[in-house]
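Schema walk-through. Below, the input block comes first and the output block second. Nothing else is stored per chain. Lengths vary across the set, and this one has 293 residues.
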Amino acid sequence: MKQALIKLHIAVFLAGFTGVLGVLITLNEGLLVWYRMFITVISLFLLLIWRRNLQKISKTKALQLMMIGGLIAIHWVCFYGSIKYSNVSIGLVCFASTGLFTALLEPLMTIKKFSWSEFFLGLLSLLGIVLIFHFDTRYRTGIIIGIISSIFAALFTVLNKRNVAKVAPQTMMLYELSGGVLLLTLLMPFYLMRLPSEHLFPNFAEWGWLLVLSWLCTLWAMDLSLNALQKVSAFTQNLSLNLEPVYGILLAFVLFHEQEKLQISFYFGFALIALSVALQMIRIIKTSKVKTQ
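--- output ---
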């Protein structure tokens, strides 16, 4: 359990950079996610072929994983849309509502029993978002898109929990991200027609940021989180991911001086989210100690 939590928090630390990279890469959110997933799929495929670690799975399972990958593609598009319609801090804080949606969805979609403690911890995170939403109306569009992103993130993780014991993590990642690339490729003409981008191709610096985003913040981070998911619940993973705003917001403060644009309600809301994470970590440690006694 300790190793799983360590892997999970390294993945969270890497994920904290994704919001900042969403600002540094000026492509619109749809193109940004397409490039991110495409680079990751090609890199992962070559890595698995070189290591001879590509697991053979049935066509039915492959199709199922690709459909799940469509959810992560939509989640990422909404996540970066939230950042671009507001800022890094708001987009990352909205991601904290994933814990509440997971607490509601996981018992409905798996054999896991409903947990009132998980529900109330997730609700505490959502209350933090409501504080920001209510008192700072400038970012309402970004907040709404961010909450939609969280719903898809919760669905993705819960469905992954049902498959993680049956398919090797990197093979699962390859099929899922391939499904995401396929979905975005099919939808991209309609997406760009509705939301045109100033440019379709990254510049030289953006290619560098895309490689960081794909190799470190996607390939390595997802591998760590999928391995951790073999030991921890989907709710624990998603609530732990609420630490992502801590790293991302600190970076946004340093790089973009976003603290000058935020009202005091943001900090009260953020404090509630941090409290929910701390309480969940305490609960996990106590439960783990009881099981080992």
